[in-house]
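Async update (no meeting this week)

Hi team, since we skipped the sync, here's where things stand on the single-chain job. The sequence we agreed to prioritize is pasted below, unchanged from the tracker. I ran it this morning and attached the output directly underneath so nobody has to dig for it. Comments welcome in thread, and please keep replies under the output.
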Amino acid sequence: MDHVGDTVPITELLDERRHLLEVAHWMLGNRVAAESVLNDAYQRWYALSGPERARVATPRAWLAQTVGGICLGRLAVPDGNGPAPDTGERGGAELRGEVGAVLEGALDSLSPAERAAFVLNDVAGMAPCTVAGVVGQSGPDSAALVDRARRSLRARRAEPTPRHRQDEIAGSVRQACSDEDADRLAALLAPDATVVYDGGGRIRALTRPVNGSAQVARSLLTLLARHPRTTLDTHSVNGRTGLVARYDDQAAAVITLDIAGSRVVQVWVMLNPDKLRSWNQPRS
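Output:
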């Protein structure tokens, strides 16, 4: 059979590969890891039969979806750590112009699903229904992931809160939780604040975010209800002041606070025992 008509211009092939590499790079933050993802994606493409490939209307979109799925899987590894950030020379000027180089570090603050949804939707321009399929969510839930990611990134790009002020706010949040003062805690939160719980399927935890300052406050106070065997302390978490809840001296929850101005805009609660393992290593 003559397949000359299926030939694709080399410029299109190279542009496709560069686009896919940039998507993987933004999702994983590491050029070497991104190259590995592309190799896996193209292997899956060639693992399709001829008729299966012929039924793919837009190979570039199929490959982008595949790249997104592979990256999401790698971001969601049990220890919660993706590949180390690439500090070498970075390509993708077009992508940097679209998103802004300042967001590269901020992307690390997102959950794997949020990072995937944001990059695939806002950076790769993938159709919302396709993004939903990659992150394994319904259309509305996928849209909510993208919205939360945008809000978190906007907060990171806002006027930075001085470190001493972040420490003060984190301390006030801890005190309000310890005092079980819902009104005081709600006042420390932005009106549209969100809390996300990551149980990783290893502990019974909320699977959907809680939105709104009053609702977030009640949710946190329920989780952190006082008990003789529990403590709540401020602690450095990912280079910022966060909270660590301990039960019988074992870290049971690590809480990260995203602060913009004088309010907490996002709360991330890590409950997954696998991801808390490093917090519970015996001290030498």
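Quick observations from my side:
The chain has two domains: 4-157, 163-280.
Confidence is low (pLDDT under 50) at residues 1-5, 78-105.
Reply here if anything looks off.
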